[in-house]
Amino acid sequence: MFVFLPSDTGTYPPESCLFGLLLAIYSFITAISVFVRWQQVRTYYETDGSRGLHRTNNVALGLGLTGAFGILLVANFQESNVIVVHLIGAFLAFGIGSVYLWLHTYISYKAQSLPGHKSYLRHFRLVTSFVITVSFTLVVVFAVRAGSKPEGKHWSASDKGFSDHVASTALEWVGAFLSAAYFASFFEEFRHFHVTLPVEFSESPVLDSYQVTGHTPENDLHNGHTNKAFVSTVS
């Protein structure tokens, strides 16, 4: 492929090792973003009577996590090793992922009162969703036109279908970068929202401590001692 332009050389080691690692990290970040976005919309409109909004938000959660799993498949099953699984992962990441983007574009237009939301965000998401969908469609078209890779590891300009392969690869990268930009647009709204994770014990360490030491909560309070292990949160 061409130097400084999108290529598929990440399919082969050692590039594939770094490429797989970065994609795995991106998959994790995507899954977290999908969950936080779902929780944000769900919490803010918890008392809202719009069942359609909540239903769309729930469906988007499942599709978003499926797309994140697809990215993980692409990262760990290179096309030169297990092409079938790689293509399944690509379909989940770009195909199912595109549906997720459209659903949250719809939510962006319906949830304009969400703190931090600005009009340019929903318009940006609409345009981005459209371009990503077109890119994914063209990726499939050009990939079919290019056909299978010729003998040898790398394509060359003299190979039949080379131009179609270059177009398919470049459009795949366009879709990948725009998808990342779409998720980045959530952060403007995430700034007005935070998630806390409660930490709970299956058995109370406080009661176990009293059984061992012979102390009781009443004695501790009488002696001026307090135990701070009752509730623990991470924010």
Automatic annotation (TrEMBL):
Keywords: Membrane, Transmembrane, Transmembrane helix. InterPro entries: CWH43_N, DRAM/TMEM150_Autophagy_Mod. It is found in: Endomembrane system. It is a multi-pass membrane protein. This is CWH43-like N-terminal domain-containing protein. Residues 7-193 form the CWH43-like N-terminal domain. The chain crosses the membrane at residues 20-38, 59-77, 83-103, 124-146, 166-187. One of its GO terms (cellular component) is endomembrane system. The keyword Calcium does not apply. Belongs to the DRAM/TMEM150 family.
